[in-house]
Specification:
Leucine-rich Repeat Variant, mainly alpha, 2 domains, 16 helices
């Protein structure tokens, strides 16, 4: 490591304190109240009220300070310090920093991510959806042997682990990666009554349809009566209107 970079290297503990101070300083109660409206049923989800463009700008500024100075281990430690916090933006910035180190991801991170989900560190659909498409998805693409393990998450009692079993495949689905596993995951999720799982499953199927629309239509027609209606509606969003109407009727 360059000596100058080593001197200017913030520790994960120091950066965690700094980031929390920045978030508190830039909080916006009006935006926080608006965000909370989307999470009325989540007593443990709290917001500082900082919009996405400002969060992304701050993330870029952090990366300019960290690149070449931090390793994946530093980013993981940073997440361990940040993710248990109750504010959504604290969790979000932690994950954004972690995603900057995708090129360094190793299989050990897979177990770490599962542990975070099991501990409810990602305690909303929004937090799971920041972490899993690129975080878990990168691991699944690089280490295909992990796919079988994620398929088993569909039966996990924790709703966030279960949602991750679908959302982790989102980026891969769009480009036709692991479609056999994706459709197996989707089918395994049908029986659960959780609306957040229905929506994640529909999102997954919609992305899979971008790679192979005919396969998606055949899957929906085959399993129609077993598929929650929310899942069907999300899955067919990109089909032409006439096709959507036909599929809604034939999958009742």
């Amino acid at each position: 490591m360059n000596p100058e970079k080593a001197v200017n290297r913030p520790t994960p503990e120091a950066l965690a304190r700094e980031v929390k101070q920045w978030l508190q300083k830039n909080r916006n109660p009006k935006i926080a109240a608006q965000a909370k409206n989307y999470f009325k049923d989540y007593d443990d989800v709290t917001f500082y009220g900082i919009d996405s463009p400002k969060m992304r700008e701050y993330d870029r500024a952090l990366w300019e300070r960290l690149k070449g100075r931090w390793s994946l281990a530093d980013a993981v430690r940073f997440c361990e310090l940040m993710l248990p916090e109750k504010f959504h933006e604290v969790k979000g910035l932690a994950v954004l920093v972690l995603l900057r180190f995708r090129k360094e991801y190793t299989p050990d991170l897979f177990t770490t991510i599962k542990g975070w989900l099991e501990k409810d560190y990602c305690n909303s659909w929004a937090a799971v959806d920041i972490l899993c498409p690129d975080g878990l998805g990168t691991l699944l693409k690089r280490y295909p042997e992990l796919v079988e393990e994620v398929k088993s998450w569909t039966a996990h009692p924790n709703r966030w682990v279960k949602r991750a079993s679908a959302v982790g495949f989102i980026k891969l689905a769009k480009y036709g990666g692991h479609l056999d596993a994706i459709y197996e995951v989707s089918e395994r999720l049908f029986p659960f009554s959780d609306d957040l799982i229905h929506k994640a499953n529909g999102w997954l199927l919609r992305e899979a349809g971008k790679a192979d629309a005919n396969r998606l239509e055949a899957f929906l027609l085959k399993h129609g009566l077993k598929i929650p209606r929310t899942t069907v509606r999300y899955a067919i969003e990109r089909f032409p209107e006439a096709q959507r109407k036909r599929l809604l009727l034939t999958t009742k």
